[in-house]
Amino acid sequence: MENPLSPPAATARVVPQPRFDLTSVEPRAYVGLMAMHKQLSQSGLSLTHWDLINVRTSQLNGCAFCLMMHTQEALDHGETEQRLHALPAWPETPYFTAEERAILAFTEEVTLITKHHVADAVYEEAVALLGETYLAQVLLAVVAMNAWNRLGIALRKMPA
């Protein structure tokens, strides 16, 4: 009989194993997603906004692969560690501009859409600050990043 006062036995760490490689199984679909990603990255969104969307969406979805990749890209593009560390609590920090706050709020509403859809107040603030064209680019970037996150999570892509 085990002593109830002794510490629990150590358990082996289970590391999830990656699943199939989408580029091999569905190469044309993957090429299509990459073409969309490339077009969006050249759509006129600022690199800072692109990085904030990619990192915040990946945080919300819990995609380790995308989170690691896009956090490193953001750093490579000149983003600060301070802002990246504060990103999960962005509403409570002074580090983000009004436009970035509108983008982050909109990103969260679209990513967590099943909670309450996109609130009118969030949309109205974003469109007022960004305009319809830029907000359309933000929306498409958020949708694309959500697609990549879902693929990364479903296929268990492992961060390098």
Question: What would you note in describing this structure?
Answer:
- The chain has a domain at 46-154: Up-down Bundle (AhpD-like).
- It is globular, with a radius of gyration of 19 Å.
- α2 packs antiparallel against α8, α3 packs parallel to α6 (98-111) and α3 packs across α8.
- By secondary structure, the protein is an all-alpha fold.
- The longest helix is centred in the C-terminal third of the chain and has 35 residues, at 120-154.
- The protein has helices at residues 22-25, 27-41, 47-61, 64-76, 81-86, 98-111, 113-116, 120-154.
- The model has no long low-confidence stretch (mean pLDDT 92).
- 66% of the residues lie in helices and 0% in strands.
- The chain is built from eight helices and no strands.
* Helical amount: 55-70%
Largest sheet: none
The chain-level mean pLDDT equals 92
What gyration radius follows from the Cα positions, in whole Å? 19 Å
Strand content: under 5%
Tell me the CATH topology of the domain at 46-154.
AhpD-like
Overall spatial form: globular
CATH superfamily membership of the domain at 46-154: AhpD-like
Q: What is the CATH top level name of the domain at 46-154? A: Mainly Alpha
> How many E-type strands?
0
Second-tier CATH architecture of the domain at 46-154: Up-down Bundle
Q: Structural class of the helices, strands and pairings?
A: mainly alpha
Terminal CA distance: 43 Å
Low-confidence stretches: none
Q: Number of helical runs? A: 8
**H-E string:** HHHHHHHH
